[in-house]
Structures are given as C-alpha cells and as structure tokens.
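Researcher: I'd like a structural prediction for the single chain below. Treat it as a standalone chain; there are no partners to consider.
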Amino acid sequence: METIEKPWGNEELLEVNNSYVVKALFMRKGNRCSLQYHKQKRETVVVISGTLTINFKDTNSTWKDIVLNPGDFCTIAPGRIHRMAGVTDVVYIETSTPELNDVVRMEDDYGRK
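Model: Treating it as a single chain, here is the predicted structure.
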C-alpha cells in the first residue's frame, strides 16, 4: 500500500490494476482539492467518516454543492468540473477507472499546476 501526501491530507493506493483503482483518502477540515476535471477517468466516492462537500457544474452549467455524510456516495463522469472539500476531517474511498494521471487542474489553493 502506497501513501501519497497531499497538501490537504493524503491518499492511500489500495488497489491499482488495468481495470480499476481504489484509494482511501483523508482530507483535513477546511481544506479542498483542486478545481479539476478528468478527460477519461470516471470516479465514485463514498464517505466513510466525516462530511465532504462536492462542488460541481451540472449539465446546465449551474454550480451545485452536494454534501456527503458516512455511507453517501457520488459518481463523477469524465469532463465534469468538480472540487471536494472537507467540512470536517473526512475519510472517503474513491474507486475509479485506471487513469491515475488524468487530472486537469483549473484552480488550486496550493499553487499546483
């Protein structure tokens, strides 16, 4: 199991193969990931503990927030602009297609490109 430190917390790669990827992510309260989208990657997140907000553009290009609590989940299709934020310290699982480097960052609080 590989742990990757992030400015907002960390992620653990639980399974990586040619068909799918499973990660366990920890995000600290008040932190958020990049505003981003994926060209090919489809991901589903399920919250294990804490509260996560996902800000995204819906099909009408309207910005929406959804709040996920333990047991709640959301699937993010390729091309959908989104950003996760920790309302509290949060642990969530991300299962996705295997394109690990398919991230197009549009904004980033930590100066990443």
